Amino acid sequence: MDDALDTFVGSSPAMRTVDDTIRRVADTDVDVLILGETGTGKELVARAVHERSHRSSGPFVPIDCGAIPENLLESELFGYERGAFTGADRQRQGLLEAASGGTFFLDEIGDLPLVLQAKLLRVLQERKLRRVGGNAEVPIDVRIVAATSRDLDRMVDDRSFREDLFYRINVVRIDLPPLRERGDDLGLLAEFFAEQCSRDMHRPVPAISGPAYSALRRYHWPGNIRELQNVIRRAIALSDDDTIGADDLPVSLVAAAEAANGSPARSFFDLRSEYVSRFEREYFTSLLKRHTGNVKESASEAKLPRGTLYRLLSTHRIDPALFRERG
Questions:
Q1: Residue 272 is assigned to a structural domain of this protein
Q2: What region does 303 belong to: left with phi over 0, alpha with psi -120 to 50, or beta?
Q3: Are 147 and 33 in contact (CB under 8 A)?
Q4: Does 55 reside within a domain?
Q5: Helix (H) or strand (E) holding 145
Q6: Do residues 56 and 139 share a domain?
Q7: ∠ at Cα 234 (175, 289), nearest 5°?
Q8: CA-CA distance, 101 to 115, in Å (whole number)?
Q9: Domain extent at residue 247
Q10: Angle at CA 124, nearest 5°, toward 122 and 125?
């Protein structure tokens, strides 16, 4: 399996369909539209299309249409000629031109202003562009892959997205399912991220406990794969042993999972108490590690009376001797 596909292809029927579509269209030059919620892996799909195509030796050039101010977006896309505007002291190639011979990835194309939608449509139809401030047409050889988390069908209906551009980019459409609809893929992805993050942190790969896995399964995952990756990374950073437990997951995630399972939602005060308790355990554990179990030095750094620190350690059942043995 290609590296670019590792983090989104699983065993669920929806993802097998995605993989099959990528394999069938990658080596053609048709433009592709990828739709899916934020965090579902749209750029990974775009990179997979590129890497499996005959353009793989050429550049893969991404742009986030929603991340660049509108007054700069045109020159970023099309480039500009010297003297086109104040500060344009030299000719500059745009990203579309830089992608020639490869793939141009328009992320969040739904955020593209209408005036630029018209200019982009012309480029896609003719495969030529004019730099800002220029008259000459510059030929480009580029494949377009576009993506968005917005409802383009509705945007076409309310005329906030050009219908002709929509049909031009919607030659092959790939719909990415949200993580909550991918069944057992969640477990495969959690294990993949556990291995990947452990390797990055130079730590042993942890197992995922039953209670932790149960919470992960019941959670709604509004941030999808990106959120899962961050949760696993956090859990590995906080875990003191070779297992990710429910206590290593964010309290808000566990609470939402319990609510989804029909358990009564916990109050603000319950959650605050759990947050404080977890913070104290993590803080005192880290403190004793730094001072190899020396309570006097730990109390000094924490600016706590030694007796107070002993009491708090006892409350959390933290034995300073364990850290002296490790040290």
A1: no
A2: left
A3: yes
A4: yes
A5: strand 143-148
A6: yes
A7: 170
A8: 26
A9: 179-266
A10: 65
